[in-house]
Amino acid sequence: FLGAGGGNDIQWCFSQVKGAVDDDVAEADIISTVEFNHSGELLATGDKGGRVVIFQQEQENKTQSHSRGEYNVYSTFQSHEPEFDYLKSLEIEEKINKIRWLPQKNAAQFLLSTNDKTIKLWKISERDKRPEGYNLKEEDGRYRDPTTVTTLRVPVFRPMDLMVEASPRRIFANAHTYHINSISINSDYETYLSADDLRINLWHLEITDRSFNIVDIKPANMEELTEVITAAEFHPNSCNTFVYSSSKGTIRLCDMRASALCDRHSKLFEEPEDPSNRSFFSEIISSISDVKFSHSGRYMMTRDYLSVKIWDLNMENRPVETYQVHEYLRSKLCSLYENDCIFDKFECCWNGSDRQVIFNRTVTFFLPPLCSIVMTGSYNNFFRMFDRNTKRDITLEASRENNKPRTVLKPRKVCASGKRKKDEISVDSLDFNKKILHTAWHPKENIIAVATTNNLYIFQDKMN
Amino acid sequence: MFVRGLKRKCFDGEEDIEGTLAGIKAIPSYNLQRQSLLDMSLVKLQLCHMLVEPNLCRSVLIANTVRQIQEEMTQDGTWQMINTQSTGQASLDRLVSTDILCRSSREQAEGKHVPGYSTFNKDFAGDQAQDSSETMSTASSVQAPRNLQSNVWEMENPQENKGNFQKSLDQIFETLENKSPNSVEDLFSEVDNSYYDLDTMLTGMMSNTKMGHCDGLETFSSPTTATSNSNCKSDLNELDHIVEILVES
């Protein structure tokens, strides 16, 4: 009888797919980031061509409770353009690495989008009225001959077709020598951090010509470089606390009150290595590709090449839970190293924050956040979900073959070795070009967005 | 590394291998596998520098892997380029890539690399198919990458390898730091620049022809003698492959 989160396993159904149908993928269309806004009404994607596409959920028909609103294109704009760094003779890619939404304060929506070097604050606003009846101008904007103006009237707003405009309000540039991998908005909603391979900077949303460097792990002698920053995030409630992960599988928690430069961590989270699994690839697969706090801030989740780990912030020496995403790849690491797949950076996400309990379709209670399910992507367009309570996991596939709405997705299974059962897929048949790196979970409902190379799939739970 | 199309006999005691690897007569030694991993890593680092702006995380991870191998080889005393062909030791789980993962991604990887690297891969495969002797083929598998490595780093003899290797790693990181055209040129100053000149490659004037041709055991201990090998048929295959890649891109 619980809505989202507890009780029964969720049954996922295909809802929509966005993007080109051809197998021939244009490089610019490769999706590089996916993010719901705080209400879940808007879903933003960024791509390799520097474009941002925002989808908006249709208003639900309140009387028809069989399906949630569909997502349709709301706004598309070119966020970043390719640039050329003349000093280094290097091109700066326009690929959008991350998008983060600001909480809504007024009618407009704001988001931060970043490429390797520059972060931009975009304002997305609607215009559905326009003023008409100017005294000095014609309807088409031309100025009237003043001598023909004989009366005075007040212009009035008249309805027009909805127009969604995106305009860059701030450009935060020239603060990163290395490639930006993360941006994270602080819970004070005034500042945010941006992290590149070696440094983390703190910005104020209103100030573009200055940022404060809060972490710097660049060695004096670059030859001594053995570790880089891979991801960073602010704590959801504690505005002085943030974490950053490294390529050696460690997570450092820092408190900005301790000192201006947070080079000394407050906590260091690291799991001791398992000697039985040691190989030349151990370090590479321990590199953390994503870190996400739970909604309460009590836990954080990290993704490395083969697993998802849940950490309790009060326990530094090991994770409290570990989930294997695709353990069958462990014996293939050499090939995955050769074809570079071992360097793929998978993201992970928690399920939505609110639990709703609905009685008689009229009364809704909101229970505290649960964070009981984690989701992450894999190869062959598979993605995985782990239920922390039931300890059950499921593998699903994002493919156009399953695209009948309200048909429950069939769980998939990979056969690691031995005799392959019917409907199972052997490891050798997996397509390593079809990788799901980016997934997002609606903040309030059981709706998920899963990005394949150039398509965005939206799934929702089967509503009874 | 084992490329599709190789005829080798099955591993003993390995889990079922479906399909492609027809057979593997004997398990290549851990040392050889480690060496080929080292070579592959060095090639990857080299390629990093040919990209517009190398991915620092990837470069660091590969460099760390190279260091690990180097450390282990130093401890083993095998850092002086080995001659042994022992096929005994069975602790292969660490390095063995027994199954061909995904042919399409491998082909794709070949396609997108610099033609030189793909040519190396293709030559390797081409040579292997013709080799009758199994031991020769394992030797060649090491020889091909080493030839590439020799060309790239212009090492005169194995003794210098270690010093040059360290120097090269350092240069890589300096380059990553500076990323100015001058640094990149410094890194490559010892290297025959025409290696990266596609025009020269196409006209076949390149030292490309040196790569990937092995006379097996004879040339095993002296990498540079491979320069005398020239196999016209392989040259043509190389050129075809290069043209194929250019056309696809």
Automatic annotation (TrEMBL), chain A:
GO MF assignments: protein phosphatase regulator activity
Top-rank taxon: Eukaryota
UniProt GO cellular component terms: protein phosphatase type 2A complex
Chain segments annotated as transmembrane: none
Keyword entries, A-Z: Repeat, WD repeat
InterPro entries: PP2A_PR55, PP2A_PR55_CS, WD40/YVTN_repeat-like_dom_sf, WD40_repeat_dom_sf, WD40_rpt
Family according to the record: Belongs to the phosphatase 2A regulatory subunit B family.
Protein name: Serine/threonine-protein phosphatase 2A 55 kDa regulatory subunit B
UniProt organism field: Rissa tridactyla
From TrEMBL, chain B:
Residue ranges of domain SERTA in the record: 30-77
Highest taxon of source: Eukaryota
Renumbered residue ranges of the record's region Disordered: 112-146
Gene Ontology, cellular component aspect: nucleus
Pfam families tied to this protein: SERTA (PF06031)
Biased composition (Polar residues): 129-146
InterPro entries: E2F-SERTA_domain_protein, SERTA_dom
PROSITE patterns recorded: SERTA
PANTHER family: CELL DIVISION CYCLE ASSOCIATED PROTEIN 4/SERTA DOMAIN-CONTAINING PROTEIN 2, CELL DIVISION CYCLE-ASSOCIATED PROTEIN 4
Protein name: CDCA4 protein
